[in-house]
Amino acid sequence: MTTGENSTPGAAAQAAAPGGPPTALFALAWLWVGVPMAYGIYELVLKVTKLFTGG
Amino acid sequence: MAPGLLDRSRTVAPPGWSRWLIPPAALSVHLSIGQAYAWSVFKPALESSLNLSGTASALPFQLGMVMLGLSAAFGGTLVERNGPRWAMTVSLLCFCSGFLLASLGAAVEQYWLVVFGYGFVGGIGLGIGYISPVSTLIKWFPDRPGMATGIAIMGFGGGALIASPWSAQMLESFGSDSGGVATAFLVHGLVYAVFMSLGVLLVRVPAEGWQPPGGKRPQEQQSRKPLVTTANVSARSAVRTPQFWLLWVVLCMNVTAGIGILEKAAPMIGDFFADTSTPVSAAAAAGFVALLSLANMGGRFLWSSTSDVIGRKNMYRCYLGVGGLMYLGIVLLGDSSKPLFIVCAMVIISFYGGGFATVPAYLKDLFGTYEVGAIHGRLLTAWSTAGVLGPLIVNWIADSQEAAGRSGAGLYGLALSIMIGLLAVGFVANELIRPVNPKHHLPEPASAAGQAEGTAGHEGGAEHKEATGR
Lengths: 55, 470
Known about the structure:
The complex is a heterodimer of chains A (55) and B (470). Chain A is an all-alpha fold and 55 residues long. In chain A, 67% of the residues lie in helices and 0% in strands. Chain A has one domain. Chain A starts with 8 loop residues before the first helix and ends with a helix. In chain A, 31% of the residues are buried. Chain B has two domains: 19-209, Growth Hormone, Chain: A, CATH 1.20.1250; 219-436, MFS general substrate transporter like domains (Growth Hormone, Chain: A, Up-down Bundle), CATH 1.20.1250.20. Helix content of chain B is 72%, strand content 0%. Chain B has helices at residues 22-33, 43-50, 54-57, 59-82, 84-107, 111-131, 134-140, 145-174, 178-202, 235-238, 242-272, 282-310, 312-333, 338-367, 372-379, 381-403, 413-431, 444-451, 457-467. In chain B, helix 4 packs antiparallel against helix 15, helix 11 packs parallel to helix 16 (381-403) and helix 13 (312-333) runs antiparallel to helix 17 (413-431). The longest helix of chain B has 31 residues, at 242-272. At the A-B interface, helix 1 and helix 2 of A face helix 1, helix 8, helix 9 and helix 12 of B.
């Protein structure tokens, strides 16, 4: 089974196939985009709370 | 001579390559170019440091949006021909050098250079970047094209969420004078260049004959879906079909209706509840706008993924039909309940985002994968049109209602009713969409070559077009 034969990112990352991309590459790629996105959402949630607290 | 890094042959995925590396590649581009929606952060600093009016300080953004539409419409075929790595590289170079030019413009206090750099050069990067991963994602995820493009286009919505606080923080650190703005632009250009390079390096096209994993079949091979074609239509032919223009109307109406709320969200919630016992403060209104941004981003992924299950036509029935009912809810009951107002607005905006994200998969259903990126680029002119129409309708009507002595929720009743009418027009257009007439289909050999675009097939398809005189 190759990594390309998995249906989710997690499964794909766990089953790195010979010749396929290493698990570290999955982690790097998803963290690369995930961390800034998490920062953006965190900042957004801070603003959203003001709608309910009236602050 | 060995092929260069950008050559299509260098982007064909080796055996074992995972398709789950393509979404982060796409996201690295879309999260970057989505910065465009956070341009307003720079406006006050530019206005004070370069002595500009509010209208003038909006010019780089407006030109950027125009260039986005034009470059997506006219560059789509090039993107299809040269592949996603080439497109992402062009996007990186244009978007980031746009920031560098804008930095120079701010440093020497030549505003025209800011407009030209960010708006014109950067705008080309926006358009090419927006469509760069679309057809590649659809080819990697033929079993779930809506979900795949939803992830990427969600990134465009998410880009502003990242850039907005980040840019504001930078201006706070560097200062809001022309030197500070110049430094902020410079840092943006350099950081985005590094960030987008992940996409350039990581993106791959599937090899010839590659099939979805685990026995998953492409949607066109699953249980019979009348609108999902197995044939292919070229971009040039697609724009000659009624289906393309009906979908153009659908997208334009959906986006116009969404922008109608987005444009006036903060003053609207304030006006709706101004005369109640719980008026909305400016900070709370900002929170409402933030909540809508979240709905916009979430809708792109959620509804586009849902369209893989219920079908594209049904999904647009929801966007346009349920969206119209949500507008009706705001018109009739909006000022009686704050939660109801917020929920209705969130649903409308989630449908607005979903409309953007679902449309590439709808195009793939109707026209096949052959030149879906190029067709998508041409369809984005509907977005540009809606970008003018939506704010125009809402602002003009709100102003005229105010002049007529209305206040509160009464300012918006007519504009919101017009939005319901626009959604109804879109609903009818969606109902009229039928499968494309087979006379527009490519002959089988060209189709097959186009499907094998992952290897060297697209060039094959282009050659075939030449050979067959099309």
